[in-house]
Write a structure and sequence with these properties.
Layout lengths: L2 H9 L5 H13 L5 E5 L4 E10 L2 E6 L3 E6 L3 E13 L4 E10 L2 E6 L2 E5 L7 E4 L8 E14 L5 E14 L2 E14 L2 E18 L2 E12 L4 E17 L3 E16 L4 E16 L6 E11 L6 E14 L2 E12 L10 E12 L1
Amino acid sequence: MNNLAFIRTHCGFHIGPLASLVCLLLVISWPSRADRLYFADGESITGALVSIEAGKVKWASEILGDLSIDQQHVELIDSRLSFRLNTNDESLTNCTMSVQQGQQQLQCDQGLESLDNWSLIISAGADLPESPPQLTQKGTVSVAAENSSGNNEITKYNIAARSELRYIESRHTFALQYQEESAESKTTRNMWRGSYQYDQFFSGQWFATGNSFYEEDEFKGIDERSSVGLGMGYQFLETTSFNLLGKGTVNYVDEELSNGVSRTTPAFLWNLDFTWRVNDAGMEFFHRHVMLQAIDSGDDFEVTTLTGFRYPINGHFNSIIQLEYDYDNLPADDTVEKRDQKWSIGLDYNW
């Protein structure tokens, strides 16, 4: 479609050839910093989004005036103004709009979302609340315990804490886990692990990442193990319903084993973190896994996973049921089992 036909078709009015030429030159020369609306036929105009209602996109153009465009003709919108967007099942607040690699991206209070079609938006209106806090924090502390007496004397403790701090485009994640088990007054498990991860977003969903961890596990034959690494990550989803990210880093691992052996090795560390808010009541399904693969030995790898459900009880308290599964293909000692799995039911507190 030529530009004159575009102006007549989309703008909904007829103008003379000379005026059309003037409008066309103004459109071409309009500053690139203006917001832009892209049509399904490939044409675009500058201006500012006013609202969306009753299937119409209200657009203000300093050249063409106030326009009312059928929603079905709109392909993409690039705007730094803030809006509230309403769909069939959610309301997104304080949203700005950008076009990345030909796809519509929405950056809202609820996170970064992709929009497949502007027809999915029922309404939109100006939404300019106070700026959100630059520093946000969330976290959880989980406790699971078991104590039995009589025929068997068994005591188990599993305590885990996780905290995430977000400052503009930086994210810091701290985690700590402690496990202790005893049977017939004899300790059968004693381990603890601490970790820190740093993420720096630089391009929408891509981020540079670094990590470090330290652990001790007496009954796996590990006196000390520490590691640091650097790599890249990608935030696939970050909405009120879903959170999904993946990271890959190259790590340096230093181990002191109970049998007196010390070993260091470069390794590849893969990390995946997924959370799904199942319903409005706050029930969540979560899954996290970490795979550590030695670079110089294909047989030297281990996988650690945590999968479960969290359901609100009252306020910040939740009940939790989870499965922890560990697999170490080359354990520190031949007498140590490669596979270790444990079901637990407990209580957690989040903020």
